[in-house]
Specification:
Length: about 600
Amino acid sequence: MAKLGEFSNEVIKTLAKRAGERCSICNKITSKPHESKTEKFINLGEAAHIKGNKNAPNNRHDDNMLPIEKSNINNAIWLCRSCHKIIDSDSLKYSVEYLTSLKANHENKVKIGYYDNQWQEIETLNVKIAHLEEKISLVDEIKTLQSDTNLQLRIEIESLTKERSELEIKINQLTDLVLSLDLDNPTDNTNKIIDAFRNKDRETLNSLLDETKLIDEETELAQKRVIKGVLAELDKDYNQAELNYQKAFNISQSYKHLETYISLLKRKFKYKEAINECSKALEIFTDDVEKAHTFGFMAELSADLNKSKDSVNYLYKAIELIENNESSNIRVFRAHLYSAKGVAEKNIGEFKSALESFQSSLNILWKTHANNEDTEYFNALGTLWNSTGLLYLQNGDIEEALHHFDCAIKIFTDPLYYNKYLLPVVYLNISDIYISAKYFNPKKAYEYLELCHTIVKNEYEKYPLQYLRYYLGCLTKQGSNLIVGQQLEKAKEKFELAIQIANSHTNINLDDELSHIYPNYSILLQLLNQNEEALKYLDLTINLLEKNYEDSEYEINLSLSKLYFQKFELFRNNSFLLKSKEYIAKVPLNPATLKWKTIIEKISIQ
């Protein structure tokens, strides 16, 4: 007989069966066959209390709870041993409400057969990935194939893994959507949809969600439109997906469905159309938070169009709407808006405003998460330190830049929050400082570049697509540093390797990376007295920048001014000098640009 307040064997047995013998959090199976005794099994699961005793190690206790309530199955959740320990050590995250929701969601998934088997698309990808990983294993073992063959295999694995991940996200979304239908009072049609989903019957699902039946059935119509859109995305029929997401929003007129619709337009690169749809939604929405999210979306889309000035305006409107909303999640949202605003302001040369925006974001994060140990929070904080440091660097305040970069490094090198993706960026920025005149130290600059190169090269070999741009940036920086150190042949090797790698990825648009590689390589070629070849790479860069040109863009204007001036120095052609002056006239004055502008203005046309 169970102790007072503890679960009975019958409750434990029923709870485990209702959970499908799976942990309600990590979904691991909680029983396995005994290794030697065929009549026995090994239990790996535990019935955990949602609410507990007052003196328990967590805060989920209820002083007024009776023993009979404590031992009731409604106060129990089925977990593996590891997850049981986790929920008892983190009662802030695993609150009573959160655990109750997890339990209900997990049992509903068991009810509709979500865990019965994987969808065929994912199973096919798993087989392909396993086959490729076996190939790589053989390559590593016998060492007979060329290294670029190995690289291609890793790229293929990375692409398939990404595709599998996207499929899993879509199928999870599909599952959540089906679970959100009214399972307590389902219509006949809803029951048929759930049965078809449980049986993985795509043909029946598509039949039940055909156009005529959707129009006839008004109840849950918007949700079903979204389900149909997700199915279309799984079939790569993006036009049908777009149509259904749009109809779902037109029916519901909610931000939730707008977000689904706009996200697809963004993936299809329909940025202007997405901005127009957001503008229409703003005329409908009455809630300030929904409006702020919509303006945030418009800012993100404007950034994709290289319209940073528009992005700043949208972000200002978003922040204004929620400035006085002090709920925790809205404060964090406001911090992200300020950070995005700082980036956009930096891009148009408004350094003072950008600095104020970054500082506002930092202040909000410190206030909201003073005792937070969440990795995502520290990544955001480290990124802000780095962004602010970069702003000080561009504005000529080296001491403040170094201080902020050091704060970012302390976060990203902490064993708890070590970040291989963000740390190299900080090292690159510090290397720039030791190339500047005031702190000129090529050896120290190269040491930071080597720290960056070690991390990025290792990660590029494992994840070529994810780390491609970082690796190209690192090679370019190393080449530039070697030029300063008068090691021209070594510099040439770095640039040529970067160009070779960039040109090998023909299916990826690398204009932004090449627009940094080419001009630096051109400088090297001039030092090697290969002026015709240098001119070729200058013209290639100008073509890339003018192709992506936006009149308001600070960085592009400054780069074009410097490139045309390089052409002027090579050939003393006045038209190049005029072009250089034309572009620099559009750049706002600050300590980083004033010196360059002064140099150009002093040169008279011959």
